[in-house]
TrEMBL record:
Keyword Transferase attached: no
Range of residues in the leader sequence: 1-24
Compartment list: Secreted
Family, as annotated: Belongs to the attacin/sarcotoxin-2 family.
Residues in Attacin C-terminal domain copies: 45-103
Protein name: Attacin C-terminal domain-containing protein
InterPro entries: Attacin_C
């Protein structure tokens, strides 16, 4: 199995994003004016990592990040996004890569 540097870079980038988004600065008593000026949004995202191996076929390694990017004030429209990377190692078909970016717009009534 060959080592792929781009896969390591993707994992590192996803790890940095997860660490920077998970440390929020707490609000203090005197921050009431700041709270009034800024509306804080709760950002949630999901990071998924996986690998499967089958003898004679090879190994598939994948990483995916999913996040809600935007939501209208009424809540009727939202924009979700995801990015994924998959790499196949070995087997009869050889090595292969797949990169995907997705945006999904949801309208509700």
């Amino acid at each position: 199995m060959k080592f792929n540097f781009s896969l390591l870079l993707l994992y590192g980038l996803l790890l940095m994003l997860a660490r920077s988004a998970s440390h929020a600065k707490p609000l203090r008593e005197g921050d009431s004016q700041l709270i009034a000026r800024l509306q804080r949004y709760k950002r949630q995202f999901s990071l998924n990592f996986g690998a499967t191996h089958e003898d004679g076929y090879g190994t598939d390694v994948n990483a995916e990040a999913i996040a809600s990017l935007w939501k209208s004030q009424s809540g009727n429209t939202k924009l979700d996004g995801s990015a994924s990377y998959t790499q196949h190692f070995g087997g009869l078909s050889g090595d292969g890569r797949d990169y995907r970016l997705k945006l999904k717009v949801v309208f509700t009534r």
